[in-house]
Structure formats: structure tokens, C-alpha cells
Amino acid sequence: MSLLAGRGLAKTYGGVTVLRDVDFAVRREEVHALLGENGAGKSTLIKILTGAVVPDRGEMRLDGNRLPFGRALELRQAGIAVVYQEFTLIPDLSAAENVFLGREQGRLWLDRRAMRQTSARLFAELGVDIDVDVPVRALSVAQQQMVEIARALACDARVVIFDEPTASLPTTDVEHLLAVIRRLRDRGLGVVYTSHRLEEVLSLADTITVLRDGRLVTSRPVAGVTRAEVIRWMVGRDISEEFPSRGGASIGQVVFEARKLVMAPRVKHVSFALRRGEILAMAGLVGAGRTATALGVVGALRPLQRIEGQLLLDGTPVWFRSPADALNAGVAYVTEDRKRRGIFPELSARANITAARLPRLTRLGWLSPRRERTHAERAAQECRVRAASLEQSVATLSGGNQQKVLLARYLLDPPRVLILDEPTRGVDVGARAEIYSLIDGLSRKGLAILLISSDLTEVLGMADRIVVMRQGRTAGELARGDATPERIIELATFES
């Protein structure tokens, strides 16, 4: 018998059907993966299950008892909890205060001792060492996630829904989180799990449900299911080669080079050389200094830090005062955090594409709407941006299309060096394949591409060479033919 079941769930927004009579059920002691491209209906289904959205029709039951729609507090009290990708913690409150936020213990006065003791017990059950009195702003991302999970367990959750929980975690923390989820399953809970990382899903889940265009495509046990089958169910077509072949790629002379870069405290000694037409991957654990290196290279850290060492463009020493200065010289950086530091959510897709190159679209100091529209449409087409109109708000686009808008921004006037920081984070498998194809095509046109990624499959599938960083230093370099996950992890974690 199902623990939590939704039957015939449907939802329409403004004439657009986003969920079409979907059945979904999770049993006790089960990890049930909910899969689909961005826009497939996963988020809407999760919001219905947690009371954030009221469906147009259908029903929902917990242990056979009918549940109300749109009553988030009642559903949480009934035992349905959710851990979102974007944390809902209060940074200045302690870990224990966050665990009991909204469910504080005590009557006339807060029973802080009881809350601290219970929080400590929950953290021990999760296998993490967290000081219950420390403000959560001082905790790592992985520790903050454990606080979110402890909050769910503190209200006697029977079903826990995880929405992209590993999107921002390094490999070592991912493994610990998956182990925690398996323990929750073994304790008798039902777990709903969403992720774009298919290898992770296939190793963790007992059952998968795939949605496409708001419809249920399949729901079945994971045993015997292949990655290729899941991709075909999700996108409606075969992606036999998710990564483009790099055979025949023409790699030229060194275009961009860093020699013994030091940017305290994160970057201690980094060197790399990037060639024309090459995809050079920069791998390493979160905190190894990869993003700090990229930001320092394009001038985003000045004047906050003193930078030592050499940076050469075509053999000529350069230092960039700002990312705009770097862009004007032909070096573009695409941020890892598109939501907070990449897109302008209130502006149109068109305005987001042209934001970095407005001066070239003006005449006598006035912006030419016709030129702006023409250039934006051309760049959007090259990057395969899918939107009803470039005039719609960029915030309404899927994560994959937002990422393609960022790429289009810097291809409006193609740079010579393109630094891509986690370019497929939070992007579904279909859009990933398109982005990989785009990156490959750009390199074949002569762009030198530095690809920063925490996804080892992506690194191994895309890179011509791999530079591995560890604790702010260049730990080693691997040719494409010599690289393996084990070798990369060894360089990233162990002293030579």
C-alpha cells in the first residue's frame, strides 16, 4: 500500500497545462525519484504534494486518508516535509533555533535546553558533527543542508521530499547525503527525490517516475533501467552521444596563460596555459580555489585583494581592473551563480542578452532598439534559446534557457577566451546536451575555453586537458587520454 499517493492531479496556468492527470505514489522504505526536464511538471507536482499549490482536480491521500489541498501547515503536521535546493534557514539564528523554527518548544518561555538536546540527537542520527549553538551562516553548505533535514525530522516526518539536494555539493558531501537518505529509507520513511544527476539517481532510487510536458511517461522500479532509457523517456528522443566527440579538434598556440598566480587567501599558487580551440577543464573539490582563480583573472576581486604572478594574453602581460576590462580585451567570464550574479530577473531575455554590449548598439549616445533586437535574436538563435518571445522576462525561462541566455550575452561579440564556471549546474539533461554541443562548436571556431566543473562526468566528457586544483594550488595536469575519475580525485584530495 502506498504511503503518500496523488491521483489524477492536474494544473493549468493561464491556459497552459503544466500537469495533466498525473498519478504519483511513494511507499514506506522507498526512495522514489521524480525525473523530467525543466518544465516537465516536477516542481508543480512537488508544490501540490506540500500544499503550496492547489490543483485543478485530483486527490491526495496519506495512509489511505484523504488530505486537503493548499494547506501547507496541515500537510507538514501530517508528516510531509520538503528540503528545497534553496535553503529556508535564518542565517543569524543558531542551528537548534533553525531546526525548531515555527515549532518552538516551551509554553510561557522557550525551552532552549530541550531544543538543543533534541537537535543534537537528530544531528547524531544523521551522522554529522554540528554545534547546535553556532549560527547557520557559519556552517558549510553541506552542514546547512543537514540542518534542513533535521528540521524535517523534528516534526516527525513520514515523507521527505528532496528537491535537487546535491546541486551545490562537492562529491564527498554528496556521498554522505546519499548515505543519510538511505538511512531515512531504512527507518521506514518514504523519500521523494529529484535530481538532474542520473548516475546518482540510478544508484540511490528504488523506483523512478518520469514526467514530460506535464504528462506521466513511466513509473517503474529502477532495477534494469539504463541511463540511455531514462534520457529517452525524459526528452522524447535518443541522446546516444551526450558529449560531442572531440576528434579532429584543431588546437593552436597558447592564447591565455597564468603563471604562479597568488591571490590570498584562496589562491596560493596556480599556473595553467590555455590554447586556441581548446577546452581546458579545471577540476577540484569545492573550496579548492577554482572560482576564486577565475574571478581574480578577470579582475572581479580587485581592489579587494593583492594579486601576484603573471597573466599573459598572446604572450603579453595583462592585468584586468574589472570584468568589463577583461571583456573588452576578449576574455569573458560566465558566473556559476546565474540566479544571483548572472541574469537580471526583472528584465526581458533580450535585455539580458545585450546587457554587456550596449555601447556598440548605440548611435550618438542613443540605444537603437532595432539593432538591439536584431543582435539579440541572432545571438539567441546561435545559442538555441527557446522562448515564446525574447521580450518575456528571463525569470520565466527554464534553467537551461537562462544559461543559454548568459552564453548568448557573451557571444554577441565573441571573445577570444571564454571562462565557463559550472555551466550546466541545475540544467536538465536535454539542455545539457545542447550546451555541450554549443561549447564544442565554439571551440572549433577557435575560442579558447576554460571549463570549471564539479561534475567529473562532464569534465571527462568535454575536456582536451584537465588541470586539477587542491587547496588553492595547481595539483596536477592530465591529458584527455590519461584522465580517470580516480586519478582526478586522487590529485584533488591527496598530497603528492
Give your account of this protein's structure.
The chain is an alpha/beta fold. The protein is 34% helix and 25% strand. It is built from 17 helices and 22 strands. The protein has helices at 42-50, 72-78, 95-99, 112-126, 141-154, 171-186, 198-204, 227-235, 290-297, 323-329, 338-342, 349-354, 369-382, 399-411, 429-444, 456-462, 485-493; strands at residues 4-13, 16-26, 30-35, 57-62, 65-66, 80-83, 159-163, 190-194, 207-212, 215-221, 254-263, 267-275, 279-283, 308-313, 316-317, 331-334, 362-363, 366-367, 417-421, 448-452, 465-470, 473-479. A six-stranded mixed β-sheet has the order 6-7-8-3-9-10, with helices on both faces. Strand 17 (362-363) and strand 18 form a beta hairpin. The longest helix is centred in the middle third of the chain and has 16 residues, at 171-186. It is globular. The protein starts with a strand and ends with a helix.
Helix segment tally: 17
Shape type: globular
Q: From the alpha carbons, calculate the radius of gyration and give it in angstroms.
A: 24 Å
Beta strand %: 25-35%
- Estimated helix fraction: 25-40%
Low-confidence stretches: none
The total of beta strands comes to 22
Mean of residue pLDDT values: 88
Biggest beta sheet summary:
6 strands, mixed
Taking strands numbered 1, 2, ... along the chain, how are they ordered across the largest sheet?
Answer: 6-7-8-3-9-10
User: Which structural class matches the secondary elements?
Assistant: alpha/beta
In angstroms, what separates the terminal alpha carbons?
54 Å
